[in-house]
Automatic annotation (TrEMBL):
Stretches assigned to the Flagellar motor switch protein FliN-like C-terminal domain: 254-322
Gene source species: Sporolactobacillus putidus
NCBIfam families membership: fliM_switch (TIGR01397)
Protein name from the UniProt record: Flagellar motor switch protein FliM
Gene designation: fliM
A Pfam family: FliM
């Protein structure tokens, strides 16, 4: 974004031109010169700004889903939000995370390749402490995790993958993420080449009194089959599939064959708890319904018709006399 000059800077510039300290022609020549911007081929930008915005929206929803999931399972205050979405070389991502941390290698079928969810130890062990009945205090013991602690953390993080599936459902309908490995040393991870572009989504997480980052690393090769769906142009030009006549008939048939509960309301009455407890076989309850007044027909629990009670073929029946009723009429 271009810098905006203040009024004092504008006055100083005009004064310099008027006194001859600066030449207006030289300024024009400077503006006409081609501007050169350095480009680092090691940091190839393979995602457009539009696609970055789409990824941000997807993972804002993912952060909300994770907040609900961890709040329910840890029973403590949890707040997760998107801090940043960047595209960097894979090597830079590996260097940016701690040498001892919690790493989940995720397989996201039908997409090819793997992605990484890295949980900062401050956050991971606050979660572990809550799972074991503690207050959520973070104690760094990554180098001597017991088998029980490892399985507890794996189970917690594996359960959170349903949130990832739901967040990506608008882009990949049949996404089926699964936890492949649970690692603590990033140096052992070589999912892609060091110069491969990856998307890093950094989530700021607060678990009780502990805070830290949760980072998602998604290589470009994983998103390549669906990268066009991340563009707003794709969503704007996507044709809506109108139902065919056959599908319409099937839908109509299913609606027409739906079973509804229809009840004839003969009347209402009010009794005290004492009267209710003293009711016996043969007692008569007086209703607030006159014999000449129509009764109300409830359909699916809602009042829909007025009807007149009677008999047909020696069976009790009702005859609808009005197709629609007003709610205020029923309240009277």
């Amino acid at each position: 974004m271009a810098d905006i000059l203040s009024q004092s800077e504008i006055d100083a510039l005009l004064s310099a031109i008027s006194t001859g300290e600066m030449d207006a022609e030289e300024l024009k020549k400077e503006e006409s010169k081609p501007r050169v911007r350095a480009y680092d081929f090691k940091r190839a930008l393979r995602f457009s700004k539009d696609q970055i915005r789409s990824l941000t929206r997807i993972h804002e929803n993912y952060a909300r889903l994770l907040t609900s999931y961890f709040s329910a399972h840890l029973r403590t205050y949890v707040q997760i939000s998107v801090a940043s979405v960047d595209q960097v070389p894979y090597e830079e991502f590996i260097r940016s995370i701690p040498s001892a941390t919690v790493l989940n290698i995720i397989e996201a079928l039908p997409l090819e390749g793997h992605l990484i969810i890295e949980i900062n130890p401050n956050v991971a062990y606050a979660m572990l402490d809550r799972l074991l009945g503690g207050e959520g205090v973070s104690i760094n013991k990554i180098e001597n995790l017991t088998e029980i602690e490892t399985n507890l953390m794996k189970g917690l993080f594996e359960g959170s993958l349903s949130s990832l599936k739901e967040a990506w459902s608008s882009v990949v309908e049949d996404l089926n993420p699964g936890l492949l490995e649970f690692e603590t040393n990033p140096q052992f991870l070589q999912l892609v080449s060091p110069n491969e572009t990856v998307i890093v989504i950094s989530l700021s997480a607060v678990i009780g009194k502990s805070s830290g980052m949760i980072n998602l690393c998604i290589p470009h090769v994983v998103l390549e089959p669906v990268i066009q769906k991340l563009s707003m142009h794709y969503w704007m030009n996507e044709k809506k599939n109108d139902p065919t006549q056959a599908e319409y008939q099937v839908l109509r048939q299913r609606v027409e064959n739906s079973i509804l509960d229809v009840r004839a309301r003969l009347g209402n009455s009010k009794v005290t708890v004492k009267e209710l407890l003293q009711l016996e076989v043969g007692d008569v309850i007086k209703l607030n319904q006159h014999l000449e007044d129509p009764i109300v027909i409830d359909v699916g629990g809602f009042p829909k018709f007025f009807a007149q009670p009677g008999k047909r073929n020696k069976q009790m029946a009702v005859q609808i006399i009005k197709s629609s009723i007003e709610e205020d009429t029923l309240d009277e």
